[in-house]
Design a protein that fits this description.
Distance between the termini: 17 Å
Number of strands: 6
CATH class of the largest domain: Alpha Beta
Largest sheet: 6 strands, mixed
Strand content: 5-15%
């Protein structure tokens, strides 16, 4: 698969051949769904908690005698059916993370890249560098490239001026190539890869 390389100014800067084993697969929705679910579950805080019956500081004295009142048999005011009592089977602090094999994660990433390639939603740029960190100037350049909702993947490190200029733009995410992931690829309309990112991805899946 051959794509043109452009600059941030919208000028042509050559072309690149994308590896078919990374960008030419037939996307599988089940793999993508499994990986997205794994990512979201892993980052879920799990800090929700309630007070159970044993956590309520109320008297445990029997409310009234066992027999003869015609009412239900109660033993303590901390029971869930009473106002101010503990909650039955409420959430507790826990981790929502679950395991997903490394090979499945790697395959899902390739299918996510292939899905963007299939939709013609991949743009390859030569580099992401700016002489000064000006958000307004970067928005104008993105307008020339037609980028309003995009994930931008740079090389091993993102140039400081570009990162500072892009962080104030809504619906634009910037990540180094090590941080590329299925969820961020799918949640944005366009995927912008630098030439260094393409080379790093091909080396990673070699």
């Amino acid at each position: 698969m051959k794509l043109d390389i452009t600059t941030l100014e919208g000028k042509k800067a050559g072309s690149v051949d994308l590896n078919e084993t990374i960008f030419g697969l037939d996307p599988r929705a089940d793999l993508l769904a499994r990986c997205v679910r794994w990512q979201l579950a892993k980052r879920q805080a799990g800090t929700h908690a309630v007070k159970n019956r044993s956590d309520i500081d109320r008297t445990t004295k029997k409310l009234y005698k066992q027999k003869g009142t015609g009412s239900a048999r109660h033993g303590a005011a901390s029971a869930p059916q009473f106002r101010g009592g503990g909650r039955a089977f409420g959430p507790q602090v826990r981790s929502h993370a679950h395991d997903l094999p490394k090979k499945v994660r790697a395959l899902a990433l390739r299918h996510a890249l292939s899905s963007k390639a299939k939709d013609a939603s991949i743009i390859v740029v030569d580099d992401v560098k700016l002489t000064e960190a000006k958000t307004k100037a970067l928005v104008e350049r993105f307008g020339k490239l037609g980028l309003a909702n995009a994930l931008i993947i740079g090389g091993a490190e993102i140039e400081t001026n570009f990162q500072r200029a892009a962080r104030n733009i809504p619906n634009i995410d910037v990540l180094p190539v090590q941080g590329i992931n299925v969820y961020d690829i799918l949640r944005r309309e366009k995927l912008v890869l630098t030439k260094a990112a393409v080379d790093a991805l091909e080396a990673r899946f070699k």
